[in-house]
Amino acid sequence: MAIGVLLCVGAGLLAAMPATAHAQPVQHTITITADDNVATDPAGSPLHSPTRTLQVNEGDDVTFMIMPLSGYAIKEVKADGTNVPISDLVSGTYTFRDVRADHTFEVSSKTSTQNIENFPTIYSIVEGDTVSWTPSISGGTWWISDPSYISYRETSPGTYEFTALKVGSPYAMYAVGDLTRRVSFGITGVPFDSGDLKYEVTSERATGGAGAPGENTVMVKGPADGKTPTDIVIPAQVSGNPRSPGTVYEVTRIASSAFSDNGALETVDFSNVTLTPNFVGNDAFWTCGNLNALVFGQLTAPEIVNGFYNSGPSGGTVYYPKGATGYVPSMFKPGDPSDPYHLAGWDYEPYPAPSAPQSFAVAAGNGTADLAWQAPAEGMGIWKYQYSVSYDGVDAWQDVPDSDRSTTSIALSGLENGKTYEFKVRAVNGAGEGEAALASAVPAARLLSIQAPSAITGISHATSLADILLPGQLTVAAEDGEYKADVTWDRKSAKPAYDPEKAAEQTFVLKGVVTLPPNVTNLDNLPLETSISITVEAAPAKLATVGDTALPLVALAVAALAAFVVLAARKKLSRR
To answer: Which of 67, 175, 502, 545 has the fewest C-beta atoms lying within 10 Å of its C-beta?
Structure first.
């Protein structure tokens, strides 16, 4: 599992956001009174307990569903002492809107020779499915607690079809005059497979994310289609529902008989979850003949009722965190209290905090670092990983987001190039934080190219190679900009060879080796070499003198030739 995190690092510590305080809402009390033959929700069903109270947040609406028992009808309804006509009820419901003060609500019943029949009071249905009912008394009206969960339509006179729209627990009320009947729907999701396990959605109120605790929940139904796992890990969260991409569900239960008669199963790891008394369903692991290991992560042993078996493998072991309490046979209670405890013949063994993760390595990039590791050699019950990033020796531990025992990497960003960081990673189980693995790395930008220096010209003739001034730095291009890099020149590498005594102009090339700055890295193994062209001028022409004036030899030759011509002309004239 790969995870990416943006870091804001200051003084070696990762800043934490301050908690925000929230004022408690103002609440008001509604006092409910009902006789023994009528129930009112949402304050519960006050049968045989005539008076109850309900606390309501200021500004909220609250709806009461009035449900006489079989053989009874609604006699009278009062809100704040004032009679509410039956005709003013909405399909047997009454709503206090925008509550701003305390209220009273009273309901009484009377006998009736009629009852509404032909549909149940509790009904389970799968999301997307439909069901049709024809109430025994026609002409009534329906009220739905939340139409986003379930819809209905009249398909023929007196017959109604209900469609489950999404997972949840809505109510429907049907009323004919003073008679009412309520249906409590339990809408479950279409089972889906993730990894080795099959899940069924039991609540979905925050699609596309994890939501608050209890908003998105699933229960484990058993092995995934085509899977016969020998070792299973019950996760705290799961995703992968094709009907709701991106939704993350909390695992809250294992269904009854989910793994019964599973002969392949050997190990069940519960260390990622907190088990409530009803987490493991009835007979969930009944007669799993090869089951020999259970791993728990809680520091106080959970109570599991009727989830396993009275007899079975005698050589099994229950593993629990070192320092935990209550891990004894009595934690596995039978369904019948007179039966012996389940798994009574098993061993109970504590396990320590994990050893250090193995093969820890850091690959640094442009302001980034990719951390990778393998699971610790000793790491039973791992339920998350933590990491630390520092450059001053002060640890700053953070949870690896959404990590579990399968997590083996995390991608970090927001680091400063050229700075040496110390990275650590450790595993955590119920016994505590494990040993840390350590590695150091320097984030740096990727080298893209090396810019050759400009050619050097105008060097005077006979200048020695050692006296030619060469640039000590050049420009390199990296993925985040340009930088100066040092260069070392090899003055013996001149091609063609340079001879200071040579009179003609000379052009030659020197080779150099480039040293990158610490914030640039050569990930692509580019040659760290460069070259520079140097031109040395030719020797100047030799000079002669006439008196005190220096003249070039060519000029002297011309002058001598001219003088010779003049002299010859004079001799010719004299002969005449």
So the answer is: 545
